[in-house]
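Dear colleagues,

For the upcoming journal club I promised to circulate an example of a predicted protein-ligand complex. I picked one with pyridoxal-5'-phosphate because it came up in last month's discussion. The inputs are reproduced below in full, followed by the predicted structure.
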Amino acid sequence: MAHTLRAVPGAADERVPFSNLKAQHDAISGELQQAMEKVVANSAFVLGPAVERFEESFSRYCGAAHAVACNSGTSAIHMALRAADVGPGDEVITVANTFVGTVWGILYCGATPVFVDADADTLTMNVEQVAEHITPRTRAIIPVHLYGQPVDMDPLMELAQQHGLCVIEDAAQAHGARYRGRRAGALGHMACFSFYPGKNLGAWGEGGAVLTSDPALYSRLRGLRDHAQSRRYRHEELGFNYRMDGIQGAVLDVKLRHLDRWNARRRELAALYSDMLSGMEGIRLPLVREWAESSWHLYVVRLAGRDGILAAMDARGISCGLHYPVPLHLQEAVRSARPRHGALPVTCEAAGTVLSLPLYPELENDAAIRVVESLKELLEEGAA
Ligand SMILES: Cc1ncc(COP(=O)(O)O)c(C=O)c1O
């Protein structure tokens, strides 16, 4: 595929933002308005029919039996860990090159995070390192489908089964991604999603969900989300107010209908970037395994002199991102919980070299080409 820069009046002067939620909402504002009006007409502001409808449609979309919608991805992971009976003294194996929301739940439960390194090619969990970190205290594993690419789940599930461990997918970046044909969200014992506005499927505020096909976990999760009420005003365990707003359920249900189309456009843009940047010296492009279909939440390249390139791109009107500049084992809030881990060389190298290019369905080819041309020029100039 050859991509050439088409002249667009004024386009070169406009900033290329890192995301553009307004463009997405403008395109479907009629549908969203109608759905919201229904919520207001019913006064179903917390949980209610719109949330139930979304739970039904999203669990069906992912191929899981049940969804429990809640108020954020962080709450989803916390609830999932509670539902797996993770508590003080327990260990949970995960990765350090992720958003901090992956580990808050572990710390809220009083458990200890155990970090394995990332795979050098994909930056997702290095599944081969998990076995050596399992101890009698290990209770759960949280693989993160980072940037939208699923973790190699088959060997992980087999290992978990051998040791009686619960696997909780962190699918916060993987709405619609597939692993060997199956969707993220239906691969582990539970799967947690975030619907933060900038995600592939984003709410008009905070939102999250836990998916599971296990009826006992489903029932426990529904209780935990809503003050652990077995019956109204009866609370048999510590509960949370993690309920989803009706308006978020309505917005998400509308947006879910567009998700595949949006993800297809993300894939197209990722192909454009990879195509135009391939063969460039000094840059490592994202690699997707042959058994994975990424949701392309982020397009992350790796390069030396990253901070200089980030600043120079910004000066040229192109906003890039860093996912993530400080690994979790080096974050003060996490360190104080005394996580267990080895040297994590891939994680540490990635923190200093990753650069996320703008990638969202509404990004025009011309803007994406401008991103590539700028990056190429900077690499050739040695702007680092
Ligand atoms: C990988 C990952 N895990 C967890 C979270 C937490 O989700 P939320 O921001 O909805 O609490 C996020 C989202 O920001 C994320 O990207």
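Two points we might discuss: The pocket of pyridoxal-5'-phosphate is lined by residues 72-74, 98-99, 101-102, 144, 170, 172-173, 194, 196, 208 (CB under 6 Å). The radius of gyration is 21 Å.

See you all on Thursday,
B. R.
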